[in-house]
Design brief:
The protein is α+β, with helices and mostly antiparallel strands. The chain is about 45% helix and about 15% strand. The chain contains 9 helices and 7 strands. The strands form 3 sheets. It has a 3-stranded antiparallel sheet with strand order 4-5-6, with helices on one face. A two-stranded antiparallel ribbon has the order 1-2. A two-stranded antiparallel ribbon has the order 3-7. α2 packs parallel to α6 and α4 runs antiparallel to α5. The protein is globular. The protein starts with a strand and ends with a strand.
C-alpha cells in the first residue's frame, strides 16, 4: 500500500498464502481494505500537497515529443522471481535535460504484456493524429452490467453444449475471485472516487477542443508513416505484428525540437 511521501508494508504471512480454503476470505479482506483506502486517499493526498507547498500544473507537450515506454517489472524473492507485471507509460522528455523525463509528469497504466502495450499505444496514437473517427469504442469491461452480460453469455454457451461441468468450474472460479464484487468496486471507483482526483469542472473545460487554426502541424515524416499505417490496416495487417515501422516503410523521423514546454495552473 503506497501514498505520496508514505509507504507502508503489510505482511499477512502464511495465513493469507497458506491454507487454500482461507484464501477467498483473505482476498475479500484485501478488496475491502482497498475500498476503504480510496475513501481516505484523495483528502490525504491534498493535505500532503498543501503541507509540502506542491503546485500542480498542466504541461502542454508537443505530440511528437512524447515518448511511449513499456516496462517489465519482476518481483524478486530470495530464490526466484515471485511475480511480474507490465506497465505502459507516456512520458514527456525534459527539454532542458536530454535523456531525462519531465519530473512529476506522464501517465502510467498497467497492461497485460508487450502486445497489450503496443495496442494501447496505437489506439492513443490514432486518436491523437487522426481523430475519434479513426478508432472503435472499447468495451467497458469494468462494470457490473458488462460482467452480468459476460456471465450470461458463458451460461448460454454451457447450456448449448450441455456442459454442466464447465459451468460449475466457471462459477467456482468467479466466486473464488470475488469477481462480481471486484467489478462493482471498480465501477464505484470510476464513477465516484476517481473524479475527485481533479477539481470540479476543470477536466471538462481543459478538454474542450482547440480551434482548427491552432492545431499543430505534424512533420512530413509523421504524416507519411500515418499514411503507410492506414494502408496496412486496409490490407488487414495488425500493428503488433509489424515490428519497427520506420525501418519497414523506410521513413526516417527527425528528432523533435527541444524547447521548453508551456504550463498552465491546475486549478
Amino acid at each position: 500500500m503506497t501514498a505520496s511521501g508514505l509507504m507502508g508494508s503489510i505482511e499477512i504471512g502464511e495465513w493469507l498464502r497458506g491454507a487454500r480454503e482461507s484464501f477467498p476470505f483473505g482476498f475479500l479482506l484485501m478488496h475491502v481494505g482497498g475500498f476503504a483506502f480510496f475513501f481516505v486517499y484523495p483528502p490525504l493526498y491534498d493535505l500532503i500537497c498543501r503541507i509540502c507547498k506542491r503546485e500542480r500544473r498542466t504541461v502542454l507537450v508537443p505530440w511528437e515529443d512524447v515518448v511511449a515506454v513499456c516496462g517489465f517489472n519482476p518481483s524478486l524473492g530470495p530464490g526466484a522471481i515471485t511475480g511480474f507485471g507490465w506497465n505502459f507509460a507516456l512520458l514527456p522528455p525534459d527539454p532542458e535535460r536530454p535523456g531525462y523525463t519531465l519530473p512529476g509528469s506522464g501517465i502510467i497504466v498497467g497492461v497485460g504484456g508487450l502486445p497489450g502495450a503496443l495496442a494501447q499505444w496505437e489506439y492513443i496514437r490514432r486518436f491523437i493524429e487522426e481523430g475519434a473517427d479513426a478508432i472503435t469504442p472499447s468495451a467497458k469491461e469494468w462494470g457490473v452490467e458488462w460482467y452480468d452480460a459476460y456471465v450470461a453469455r458463458e451460461k448460454a454457451e454451457c447450456e448449448r453444449t450441455n456442459d454442466s461441468a464447465r459451468w460449475r468450474r466457471f462459477r467456482r472460479k468467479r466466486l473464488w475471485e470475488h469477481a462480481r464484487f471486484a467489478h462493482w468496486y471498480t465501477e464505484y471507483r470510476m464513477k465516484h472516487i476517481l473524479p475527485k482526483a481533479v477539481p470540479r469542472d476543470w477536466l471538462a473545460e481543459w478538454s474542450k477542443p482547440l480551434p482548427k487554426s491552432q492545431w499543430a502541424k505534424p512533420s512530413q515524416a509523421v504524416s507519411e508513416l500515418s499514411e503507410h499505417l492506414r494502408a496496412a490496416y486496409q490490407r488487414g495487417e495488425k500493428f503488433v505484428e509489424m515490428g519497427d515501422i520506420e525501418k519497414r516503410f523506410g521513413v526516417d523521423v527527425p528528432k523533435a525540437p527541444h524547447a521548453s514546454y508551456p504550463t498552465l495552473p491546475f486549478r
